[in-house]
Design a protein that fits this description.
2 helices; 105 residues; alpha+beta; four-stranded mixed sheet; two-stranded antiparallel ribbon
Length: 105
């Protein structure tokens, strides 16, 4: 929040959002801090589309892809690409996730 507007070309958050449930304020601040063609890259642990986000019994949050796309658009961020990815642990036995690349609109 203390970063100047349009200060960063890239913001990266890998395996960070499992510790934050509601990401709307984070996305708004990232969008403000990104340069005009800046990229925001991050991973989430996936929730089903029934919930925007929720805290699991293991103490980690999960978010839905639909929720991410809604708050991205509301913050002025457009999806460049996203893909499914095991974000922690061995493939097939780890945490199902998704990696997103967003850009300021």
């Amino acid at each position: 929040a203390s970063a100047p507007a349009a200060a960063f070309d890239v913001v990266l958050a890998a395996d960070v959002f499992v510790y934050i449930g509601d990401l709307a304020e984070v996305f708004a601040e990232v969008a403000r801090a990104l340069a005009g063609d800046g990229v925001f890259a991050f991973s989430i642990e996936c929730a089903g589309d029934d919930n925007d986000f929720f805290l699991q019994p293991n103490g980690r949050y999960v978010q839905s892809a639909d929720y991410i796309r809604r708050i991205a658009a509301a913050s002025g961020l457009a999806e460049l690409t996203s893909f499914a990815q095991t974000i922690r642990g061995a493939p097939g036995d780890g945490a199902p996730g998704r990696v997103f690349f967003l850009r300021r609109m």
